[in-house]
Amino acid sequence: MNPFLHGNPVTTHNFLGRQDELNRIKGRVITRQSTAIVSEPRTGKTSVLLYLSAPENQTQLYNDTAEQLLFSYLDALTFGVQINQADFWILVLAPLYTLHIEPNPESKLASLYQKCLEGGFSNSILGVLLDHLQTQNLHVVLLVDEFDAMLSYSNLCGSEFFGGLRSLASLKPAFTLVIASRQSVDTLNKNLLNAGSPYLNIFHEYHLLPFTDDEVEILLNRANGRFSPDDKSFIKHAAGNHPYLLQAVAAELWDCYEDDNTTNPDQRRHRAGQALYNVVARTLGNTWAAWSPHQRMALTLVALQQSPQLLGKRLFNHKALLTIMPDLTKELEYLETHGYIKNTATTSTPQWRILPAAFHWWLADELLRTVRNEADFAQWLRAQEFDGLLTKKEQQLLMGAGKSLLDTFKGGLPDLIKSWVTSD
């Protein structure tokens, strides 16, 4: 059975790493402080939320406080477009209703819940219910996945809802929020400015970063000796330390061993690389789309800086493009911190390299498909919001870079992947 899983959140049994983040977040839950988990798509936000709330983990994580905790997990992407404040709180309090209200319909808690229903779950009545929960030593922990999506629901995106959420989470000890978002708290607050003050300043923000080298090794050892040192090198090269990409490429290579009777390891890895790209292209596209134009430009420049290693004699004037670009230090630092690039220079002059080769394949494929004619390329520039960042001369240099790739890799993406596999 293939030991590498990707696509769905990992189970407790398969959960790996994130110990520092888990320790900090569980400490904040115990002390009733709200937390935001911020990271790129497919970096494990959902897995962390589910691990924190899994019944089998609660005693280990929360010790004596575990019996007080009522976890409520919601995925904001699943809300109906007409969801309102009452609908939201009915979902939030569903575990409380099932465990404590439905079995005791004559209790004070049941009476307070009925008042909330009748009053449309207004913030004032919710506050009374939460005060009563505190007297009963009950603590509702709401985990909201894809929290950014909540800003798109017109019936929620207002001062009453987000102001109430902040007030309840900050003033009522029986209610704590843990959210997962692709956007930072600052960005979320900026997007809510039309609703009033920065409602989300109650959150302490943690970022999910790439796996450590030790965690990568632990993951790949799940192959139980099947992967050779060269296989492991290829996996790390193709995926970097990105959790999802590592699982995806390892899974594809495992399947190639299962399905392919070839004894040529380069052919096997090439097939795995092509299969990997087919699996992860959408994820990489989503990550790219979530970035700012300057972050996209920074990765594009790193790709151009790295490409001469592949192009050999077919060099384009990439140095001219690099030197005339504005300073992207902040964006390069972000990409490095999040594991998308690495400085391989031995001198003071940075020499950047895209760490997950799969991302380089994706970006090169974008260029290969668009540089065949100027109209398509111009449309691609506009879609990336590069047209406002680049002069006409710079746009021509970028197109020249793409054409150099096209001349070298006439077979398209398969040729490009093959060049990476055999060069390692």
Termini distance? 28 Å
- For the record, the CATH architecture of the largest domain stands as 3-Layer(aba) Sandwich
Which residues form runs of ≥5 with pLDDT under 50?
Answer: 310-316
Q: Return the domain count.
A: 3
The number of helices is 21
The top level CATH class name of the largest domain: Alpha Beta
Backbone shape: globular
Mean pLDDT: 86
So, the CATH homologous superfamily of the largest domain?
P-loop containing nucleotide triphosphate hydrolases
Tally of DSSP β-strands = 7
Strand content of the residues, in percent? 5-15%
CATH topology of the largest domain: Rossmann fold
For the largest sheet, list the strands in their spatial order.
2-3-4-1-5
The percent of residues in helical segments reads 40-55%
Helices and strands: which structural class? alpha/beta
Characterize the biggest β-sheet.
5 strands, parallel
Quaternary state, please?
A: single chain
Return the string of H and E elements. Answer: HEHHEHHHHEHEHEHHHHHHHHEEHHHH
Question: Radius of gyration, rounded?
Answer: 25 Å
Outline the secondary-structure elements.
Layout: H1 19-30, E1 35-38, H2 45-53, H3 58-62, E2 69-75, H4 85-92, H5 94-101, H6 108-118, H7 123-135, E3 139-145, H8 159-171, E4 175-181, H9 185-191, E5 204-207, H10 213-220, H11 229-239, H12 243-259, H13 265-290, H14 293-306, H15 308-311, H16 318-323, H17 329-337, E6 341-343, E7 352-354, H18 357-370, H19 374-383, H20 392-408, H21 413-423
Parallel strand pairs: 1-4, 1-5, 2-3, 3-4
Antiparallel strand pairs: 6-7
